[in-house]
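Researcher: I've got a protein sequence and the SMILES for zinc ion. Could you write out the 3D structure of the bound complex as structure tokens? I'd like something to compare against our soaking experiments later this week.
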Amino acid sequence: MRIRALAIPATILAAGLCWLGLQAAVYPSTPLEKRVKALADQLAPDLIDIRRDIHAHPELGLQETRTSAIVADYFRKLGLEVRTGYAKTGVLGILKGGKPGPVVAMRGDMDALPITEETDLPFASREKATVDGRETGLMHACGHDIHTTLLLGVAAVLSAVKADLPGTVVFVAQPAEECCGGANLMIADGAFKDIVPAAFFAYHVDDTLKAGKIGYASGFMSANVDGFTLEIKSAGCHGASPWSCVDPIVVGAQIVTALQVLVSREFNVHNNTVITVGSFHSGSAPNIIPKSAKLQATVRNYGDDQRRILQEKITRLVTNICEAAGAEFDLGYEFGTLSVYNDPALVGRALTVAERILGSKTALVEQKPEMGGEDFSYFGKIAPAVMFNLGVVPPDRETTAVHSPTFVADEAAIPIGVNLMANIILDHQMKPAGSKTVAK
Ligand SMILES: [Zn+2]
Ligand SMILES: [Zn+2]
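Model: Sure. Here is the predicted complex with zinc ion in place.
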């Protein structure tokens, strides 16, 4: 078939592009866009106050009672239906829009870390707790105070425009992301038993990007966080007669080395895999072959299939090396946090919105998947999900490291994040995936 080029008058072309939403119109242009932006800006001072209050009073996972009460109270004042008690401190705020549409969810995590804050911020945390018998400071060093604040801000903005909002938005304040699998615990407690979102959205602060930039990965974004403990056993004997017993240190050393060969020789280089033996304890004196060697390892990769293959290969390797040496052993393999998978279709849709809101493609930074863990992944088992990284590096710094006692965030990111997520959710609700409302 031949395709003939048609001369289309510029006015018709512009009107058509406008209808498609593709024209480079000045943002904000629609009345709703203008309202959402104005609301995000107006709310910013209050949201920053809330963020500073939460920052000054950090709480560890499953102990976020103060933060949880702030969230529930804020949701109630907005007129949301509030459900509490999931995973002890988890809260749902349910906003029903004025038009029919799907259910969508936004998640913000609330927990802090056992780190003593070393910033000179006027709202720096002075809170302390005893963890594993040792006194430590507490700090929102992973930005979860900002995630919680963004959740409240988006809830406030969308509540104010709810007459124009199709469907239902579930705001999920999640406990215990850092320590105890809060996402899974909320699901197990029935948080989504009778209200099942069609999509989940979330932010994490990004310690490499400035405010106004968004980082994203399409597909896998974080790794499975698996691992194992291994004890290699021996009868023990004199170091001068090593033929009298199994030497668990030598067997352990062979295993450590063989694990690295396993990664480099048995896994496709494109399937990112890390095995780190981070702990190896054995022995008490130079002339004694000890009765055991204890190893601990973290194992990182992506997806359900890869983690099962790794478990099989590591079990085979440990079993065969120990048997070759005549050593008895105990291997405890654990599947931990699941890798986050960002649904490519959701990412693509949201990036179109983000480019418009943030003003330029250069504000969108494609990132490599990380080998760290994030339990937002479990919401992705319920429905397609996407987590964006929100730039928070202050203007006077190059980076700001999360999980560091000197972590600081640029609060200018708060109204930006609120405005963007409110628009992403509105876009999702107005044109649900698979709908035929987009002009062809
Ligand atoms: Zn963290
Ligand atoms: Zn975090």
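Model: The pocket of zinc ion (ligand 1) is lined by residues 142, 178, 402-403 (CB under 6 Å). The two ends are 20 Å apart (CA to CA).
Researcher: Great, I'll pass this along to the crystallography team.
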